[in-house]
Amino acid sequence: MSRLTNHDRAIKIYRTIKQNPGRKAGFIARLLRLNRSEVTRSLPSLDEKGLLVYEDEKGGLYPFSQNDLQNS
Asked: What is the mean pLDDT of the chain?
């Protein structure tokens, strides 16, 4: 099985966060069979791609869009 590119991994992480809002990085990592550190290291690259993720005070990850920013 070939390794995912950074871009492909970032997209999979974001999609998994969208499907499981509020879950911690470790949970997302287990679903994708990645290390937790791979998920947390990918978060800044998600922002660079315009795939925005909010982390709450308990470590839960939530997707949000530019529209959410404009409406607040």
From this structure: 87
